[in-house]
Amino acid sequence: MMDKAWVYLPRASSEYQQGAKNFIDTAIKNLKKRKEKENLNEPIEISCPCIDCRNTADLHPGSIVYEHLVRRGMDLLTLLGFFMEKTLALLHKYIKVLKCLIHIRCM
Fold first, then answer.
1. What sign results for the dihedral spanned by CA atoms 27, 61, 73, 77?
2. Which residue has the higher pLDDT, 61 or 36?
3. Which helix (H) or strand (E) holds 25?
4. What is the sign, positive or negative, of the torsion defined by CA atoms of 91, 94, 100, 101?
5. Which tops the pLDDT comparison, 6 or 105?
6. Alpha-carbon distance 64 to 48, whole Å?
7. What's the first-to-final CA gap in the chain, in angstroms?
8. What is the rounded CA–CA span in Å between residue 80 and residue 55?
9. Under DSSP, is residue 46 helix (H, G, I), strand (E, B) or coil?
10. 73: alpha, beta or left? (left if phi > 0; alpha if psi -120 to 50)
11. Which one of 14, 89, 94, 95 is separated from 41 by 20 to 30 angstroms, measured CA to CA?
């Protein structure tokens, strides 16, 4: 799982900028994998989680998203929603495994 501490650092710091770059690189890598699986040959653009776009604006190339994050900052509510979604997905998988284990033991 990605380290999120960078979002709380000053945007001018090299650590924040590296964190933003890693965040965007990961998003692009995941999108490329999904598009390859679905045989889609579209440009790679991602939604922008900056304080102004809040993942609701049009898709942008990674370089624009990086610029937005460094100039404007990350919208922390959008980030919270993203990580809550990931946490809920993991929790759902965990519950499925537990149900399966309970079912096996009860047989």
1. negative
2. 61
3. helix 14-37
4. negative
5. 6
6. 8
7. 36
8. 12
9. strand
10. left
11. 89
Q: Which amino acid is at 94?
A: Y
The structure tokens listed for 60 are 């942008």
Instruction: Map tokens 């919208």 to a residue.
Output: 75
Q: Which residues pair with 46 in a beta bridge?
A: 60
pLDDT surpassing 70 at residue 21: yes
pLDDT in tens, 65-95: 999 999 999 888 876 766 666 676 777 777 8
Q: Let me know: does 35 contact 44? Beta carbons within 8 Å.
A: yes
Tracing tokens 């304080």 back to the chain, one arrives at 51
With beta carbons less than 8 A apart as the criterion, state whether 30 and 46 touch: no
Q: Of 103, 87, 93, 76, which Cα lies nearest the Cα of 5?
A: 76
